[in-house]
Amino acid sequence: MEFNLSENTTMVADTARRYLKDHYGFVTYNEQLNQASHCDPARWQLMMELGWLGLPFPESIGGYGGELIDVAMIVRELGAALCLDPYVDLVVAPGKMLEYIGTERAIVVLQSIVENDEKVACALYDCHAGYSVHKPTASIRDGKLSGQKSFVPDGGCANRVIATARIGDELALLLVPLESCEITRYRALDGSRYADLVFHDIEIDDGMILSRGAETSRVISQVIAWLQALDCARMYGAANALYQRTLEYAKTRKQFGAAIGSFQVIQHYLVDMFTDLQQLESMLFMVAVKAELGNAQERDRACSAAKAYYAEKAVKIAQQAIQIHGGIGVTEELDIGHYFRLMTHCSLTHGHRDFHIDRLASLREVNGCA
Amino acid sequence: MNLEFTQEELDFQKSIRAWMRENVPEELERVSALGNMPTKSQQQQWERSLGKQGWLALTWPEQYGGPGWTATQRYIFDIERAMAGAPPTSPFGVAMVGPVIYTFGSPEQKERWLPGITSGETLWCQGYSEPNAGSDLASLKTRAERKQDHYLVNGQKIWTTQAHWADMMFCLVRTDPEAKKQQGISFLLIDMKTPGIEIRPIYSIDGHHHLNEVYFTDVEVPLENLVGQEGMGWTIAKFLLTHERTTIAGVADSYYALARMKQAIEDVPYYTDKPSARRRMAELEVELMALEYTNFRTVAATDEGKPFGPESSGLKIKGTELQQKMSQAMVEMGGLMSLAWDSPSVVGNESFNNAPRRYNFLRACTIYGGSNEIQKNVLAKMLLGL
């Protein structure tokens, strides 16, 4: 066993950290929070130059052949910087979906994402189906798509969505232009831009059907596993940033004539945060490797364990960061409260704690030390 | 041991319930049902209607406008109020400055300020915390210098809830900079319209404006607005901390929150995981019941004229922890629905859409009014003798 990041992965992480330090701060974040589109053309161009748009995909189709752990290191830094650029939502999620579909037509769309020619989002959830991605309520009848999608993380700037729908008993993935949908846009808990879509009998031609049948479900599960691992990466970055800031605050904030970090209760809080952070990092390494596995059972077990653990411990770190900061921690003025919202947000995407604990309980084969 | 209300108390409950049904405005009920906060005019209109009944200053002696109820009746009232979807009354006038004035104030001060509190006309805010005096409140620096016919106030307060609504502030100021920390502090009533006061909003992470910074630049406060003697401020502040504990745990509003949670789960027909949500609610209900019965003991002791026993000491700590737990459970049960922060239309269920705001706001409840860490320090010292 070996837990060292490869030289290449370390370089990806260092570059990401440097890039964000130079190009993204709390001021940038606050400006972006109030913008309708979260795709900043200049930063998108820089991300492309850094190779991020091609990193998650194989070289055979024009990518750079990175692994999930490489992408996770980028997303960790995005979380640490509170960055709202929808890299995961508009590159990784639709790109992996198209890669796993793997048809000629899908690869053409993937290439246009990698080359920054268009923005595509994934529409996997609707407010009537909870986390059950395999049972969408949208459906195609007589060549027409009807139904709705909620919580579409399109950054306010996608032009097409990859949407799940049923065709009879079959699950399908469709490529739908956003202009053909009724759209309601809003801000999500973490500050990103979401859209709800209504399909009013949209004419679907065969070219719009990317995938259908048993294969579709497998593709979606593979992509969701990636996204669950990346949720953890983002939360880890945020949790580490919260820990660092809170430690610094405890050393400098004085009450009763002493730094509050000299009080035993604060010391214990910080030690708990620190030790939880170590375990969160272990879970991140674990899930970043296992979420790519072909063995669905082992993959899902890893993802559910990691997300359930993060939903409890990373959230707890964010709560303690506020408590130790006191009043200033609950204000919009300081980044602490913004990290807190990000943490709650990520604990609810792609399955909340109960969902994952239930899924773990239903995965029968326990794959322990034996 | 008797855990039941008497027949008189049950009749009282019936009459309060009937009154609430008639008098809680529908608009206000809706605000509460969705987990939102009332506006200033909604809040004040409600408090005025309680004031008209003589039901605002519930803990006060009758001579100052209290209804003369027992602690049990006040407890029943609080439950009926909360379950009818009415918000708690603002604590600053009724629960804080009022008792200070009738305990420490001059006859003129009582006559001048108490009627506005019992009628709900005068809105108050609390000027305690400062940027460098949070948990260490006694290190506050806002200075009140005694002049010929007024105090000259200079300094800054922070985290002042509803300063932008308030007519008056009760304020801890330093009148003697030479005296030792706690001893140079005085308790001053300040008209918020006095020249030299500037209020700046602080937005909190629920996206709303409750909190403020308040700056004082050469603010002239009449000498007669000093409550008690100079240097008595700290004694008065401590008096406030020990006053009335029968509703501090927030049991009534937590029961309401639990009822809303149940409603929301049942209202979502496609909610995929009702058994585990119900289980979680049952667990919360158990904790709430432990708090409730501890609270009952405090209520009963008050009615027997006994001092508060050790059982009352944890009410604020346990109560605030439970409020946070419940609001977190609501957010988690909402799942993806909790992510719709500012959607112009309902996404699935509106109570779940609003849940994170309340959850975010309630992170402050273990911080304000003396953080739970400070409460535990006090208990360790006073109660455990450590």
Can you put this structure into words, describing what you see?
Chain A is α+β, with helices and mostly antiparallel strands. Chain A folds into three domains: 7-114, Butyryl-Coa Dehydrogenase, subunit A, domain 1 (Orthogonal Bundle); 120-212, Butyryl-CoA Dehydrogenase, subunit A, domain 2 (Beta Barrel); 215-362, Butyryl-CoA Dehydrogenase, subunit A, domain 3 (Up-down Bundle), CATH 1.20.140.10. Chain A is built from eleven helices and ten strands. Chain A has helices at residues 7-23, 26-33, 41-49, 68-80, 87-101, 104-114, 214-252, 264-290, 296-325, 335-348, 353-362; strands at 120-123, 139-141, 144-152, 160-167, 170-177, 182-187, 193-203, 209-212, 254-255, 258-259. In chain A, strands 1, 2, 3, 4, 5, 6, 7 and 8 form an eight-stranded mixed β-sheet that branches. In chain A, a hairpin with a 2-residue loop joins strand 2 (139-141) and strand 3. The longest helix of chain A is centred in the middle third of the chain and has 39 residues, at 214-252. Chain B has 386 residues and is an alpha+beta fold. Chain B starts with 6 loop residues before the first helix and ends with a helix. In chain B, strands 1-4-5-8 form a four-stranded mixed β-sheet. A four-stranded antiparallel β-sheet of chain B has the order 2-3-7-6, with no helix packed on it. Chain B has three domains: 7-89, no CATH class; 124-236, Beta Barrel (Butyryl-CoA Dehydrogenase, subunit A, domain 2), CATH 2.40.110; 245-382, Up-down Bundle (Butyryl-CoA Dehydrogenase, subunit A, domain 3). Chain B has helices at residues 7-23, 26-33, 40-53, 71-83, 91-104, 107-118, 233-242, 251-267, 274-303, 315-334, 350-362, 372-382; strands at residues 124-127, 143-146, 150-158, 168-174, 185-191, 197-203, 209-222, 226-227.
